[in-house]
């Protein structure tokens, strides 16, 4: 039976009739598996109104009670992690083990948010003047919105709402319409944990729902993760409407391999970071920068590993990489194979020829692909492909490698593979990128640090989660107070008095 996914507003599923709906696909079979309601302005207004109404009570809920609910939510998500992983795999296409890892990384942010009593501590200075004390407090901003992509339907929302809710805000999540089920199941788990109605809401839909949130006067802050063009649009539109914004954009992540590197380690890293989740992640390694003379040997080791990867449906335990999320996206990614060759690259591994372990013939399949001898002028280098296409650029020196990274408009993540500590330290100091790995291919920070890039990979000042997340979802208030000693008898503020 085809499933139907609807909004979650004020603690329960939406009971109205949607004016528009979208299709949900099974990417492995290439067929429609269900439908999802698309929000109109009516549903946007209802979700924001529910969040606004719930805000005063949640803001004034004690930190200990907030923390208790967060702990219960954490345990419920952990208990249902396999169920969530299967929901994600069925709609996104990633293998279940990848989806389970996504849930686990999201839970790390929930665990970080469980420490909110400590994280919200302000400062205090006694006697800044005679019998005058000064202190600062962190207060929630109000109704917050999160707009999240298809590639991590559980993890990316969990970068946002646990911290926002822990800080005393209420939240409206607009997940991707391509894989909406996980967000509704998460809402159900919040309710089971005891979160009051209206504190967490889920709206499904397309640009109409997004614009409704960006323009709504009662939404005070907006978080976004997605492509750079949309991140720029989110930032400009929300900021123009007076909102606080953090908009994380696209990436073109380079992995520099120096001649002294362990090439087996580097090849393992390139394959796992390039093809995990079918390359549909903003932290995927999409460019291996081989500092010659290692290029030929490194390519040989990468090809050896790629040949052993098993491609198949996400629910097949033998599958190591699943399909892409939609047919349109698969076709766009595959187009870079032809354009790359036409522009001078060498097609070292053609993912269109990769055999599939079961799955429908109409599934959105594209196996791991390697384009060698890629240069900065090629479209396959310039564009964020967001699929299982690993490109290899060959350079003659460290300085030439750094030139590639410096000239690239993105600054999300990068890695260097070397056994030279001095080279690694120089790299981390010089590179204009927000997240750096040293012999680590996917340098996603732990939850108590913050996630985000530089340059065209971030619009706004704040990165996600960690202390930057706490600061994004709170406003600082400075208080200066004088309390008179009972024996003082009054205070003279220096004003003239009429006798």
Automatic annotation (TrEMBL):
This is methylmalonate-semialdehyde dehydrogenase (CoA acylating). Residues 20-479 form the Aldehyde dehydrogenase domain. PROSITE patterns: ALDEHYDE_DEHYDR_CYS. Its EC number is 1.2.1.27. One of its GO terms (molecular function) is methylmalonate-semialdehyde dehydrogenase (acylating, NAD) activity. It comes from the Bacteria. It is an enzyme of class 1 (oxidoreductase). One of its GO terms (biological process) is thymine catabolic process. Pfam families: Aldedh. Keywords: NAD, Oxidoreductase. PANTHER family: MALONATE-SEMIALDEHYDE DEHYDROGENASE (PTHR43866).
């Amino acid at each position: 039976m085809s499933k139907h996914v609807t909004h979650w507003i004020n603690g329960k599923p939406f009971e109205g009739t949607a004016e528009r709906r979208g299709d949900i696909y099974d990417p492995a079979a290439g067929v429609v598996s269900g439908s999802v309601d698309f929000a109109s302005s009516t549903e946007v207004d209802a979700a924001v109104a529910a969040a606004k109404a719930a805000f005063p009570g949640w803001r004034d809920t004690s930190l200990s009670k907030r923390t208790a609910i967060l702990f219960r939510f954490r345990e419920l998500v952990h208990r249902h992690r396999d169920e969530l992983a299967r929901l994600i795999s069925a709609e996104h296409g990633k293998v279940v083990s990848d989806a389970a890892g996504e849930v686990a990384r999201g839970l790390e942010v929930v665990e970080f948010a469980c420490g909110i009593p400590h994280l919200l501590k302000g400062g205090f200075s006694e006697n800044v003047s005679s019998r005058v004390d000064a202190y600062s407090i962190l207060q929630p901003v109000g109704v917050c919105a999160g707009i999240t992509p298809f590639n991590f339907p559980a993890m990316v929302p969990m970068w946002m709402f646990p911290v926002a809710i822990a800080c005393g805000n209420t939240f409206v999540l607009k997940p991707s319409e391509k894989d909406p089920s996980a967000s509704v199941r998460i809402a159900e788990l919040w309710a089971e944990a005891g979160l009051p109605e209206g504190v967490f809401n889920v709206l499904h839909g397309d640009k109409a729902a997004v614009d409704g949130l960006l323009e709504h006067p009662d939404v005070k802050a907006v978080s976004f993760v997605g492509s750079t063009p949309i991140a720029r649009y989110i930032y400009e539109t929300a900021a123009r409407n007076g909102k606080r914004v953090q908009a994380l954009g696209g990436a073109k992540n380079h992995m520099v391999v120096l001649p002294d590197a362990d090439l087996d380690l580097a090849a393992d890293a390139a394959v796992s970071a390039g093809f995990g989740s079918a390359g549909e992640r903003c932290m995927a390694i999409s460019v291996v920068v081989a500092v010659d003379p290692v290029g030929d040997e490194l390519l040989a080791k990468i090809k050896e590993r790629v040949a052993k990867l098993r491609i198949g449906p996400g629910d097949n335990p033998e599958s190591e990489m699943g399909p892409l999320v939609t047919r349109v996206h698969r076709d766009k990614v595959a187009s870079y194979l032809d354009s790359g060759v036409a522009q001078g690259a060498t097609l070292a591994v053609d993912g269109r020829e990769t055999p599939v372990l079961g799955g429908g013939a109409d599934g959105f399949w594209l196996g791991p692909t390697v384009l060698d001898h890629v240069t900065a002028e090629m479209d396959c280098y310039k564009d964020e492909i967001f699929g299982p296409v690993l490109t290899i650029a060959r350079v003659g020196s460290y300085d030439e490698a750094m030139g590639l990274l410096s000239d690239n408009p993105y600054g999300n993540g990068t890695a260097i593979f070397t056994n030279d500590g001095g080279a690694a330290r120089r790299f981390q100091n010089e590179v204009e990128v927000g997240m750096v790995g040293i012999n680590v291919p996917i340098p996603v920070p732990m939850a108590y640090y913050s996630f985000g890039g530089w340059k065209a990979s971030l619009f706004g000042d704040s990165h996600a989660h960690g202390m930057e997340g706490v600061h994004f979802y709170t406003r600082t208030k400075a208080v200066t107070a004088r309390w008179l000693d009972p024996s003082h008898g009054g205070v003279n503020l220096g004003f003239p008095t009429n006798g």
